Amino acid sequence: MADYIRIHPENPQEKSIDQVVKILQNGGLIIYPSDTVYGLGCDITNLKAMEKLARLKGVKLEKSHFSIVCNDLSHLSQYTLPIDNSTFKILKRALPGPFTFVMNASRSLPVAYKGKKTVGIRVPNHAVPQLIVEKLGNPIASTSIYDEDEIVEYTTDPELIFEKWEKLVDAVIDSGYGDNVASTVVDMTDGVEVLREGKGDIEDYL
């Protein structure tokens, strides 16, 4: 049974954040809020947790495309190949924000990402995931939680999310209603190409 943890979206309670961090350190899966939809995540350095995340999504880990959620751009050099100044300026203007940037992956990615040529980088404009990552000391792997209802593609109500996922994950964070529009996915590996239209408009930052 998952823990149901209420955390204030703007002033997160440190004790609750510590509780979430401990769950992640122990290889747990969490559902957490962001500036777009609620996400499903785990510690990117924990291979067993990553395998559990892949199983839950019904994909093989080596074929998965889990985003890497950071709290700022300081992890970029660790997980991506060097980028030029113009690319960095776009990222700096757009993040934190509702974007997932697909970048060329470096060789120093955690084991679960080995062999991947690209990686999606996300810095949500939301205090809760930012603080979780900061306290954990490294990013979390993430994927959106889909809803089978075709009209509401993403579940927005934390209580309903808990009902559905309580036996599948280790914690569900309630920070109020989420959005039902996912992040905009932008490929930055060779120029700027929008792969999926979402909440953010990259044109505003070019």
UniProtKB/TrEMBL annotation:
Q: Which UniProt keywords apply?
A: Nucleotidyltransferase, Transferase
Q: Which SUPFAM superfamilies does this chain map to?
A: YrdC/RibB
Q: Which positions fall inside the YrdC-like domain?
A: 14-200
Enzyme class, UniProt record, top EC level: transferase
Example GO molecular function: L-threonylcarbamoyladenylate synthase
| Enzyme nomenclature, EC number | 2.7.7.87
Q: Does the keyword Nucleotidyltransferase apply?
A: yes
Kindly indicate whether the keyword Cell membrane belongs to this entry: no
The record's NCBIfam families line, in alphabetical order, gives: L-threonylcarbamoyladenylate synthase (TIGR00057)
Q: What is this protein called?
A: L-threonylcarbamoyladenylate synthase
Q: Which organism is it from?
A: Empedobacter falsenii
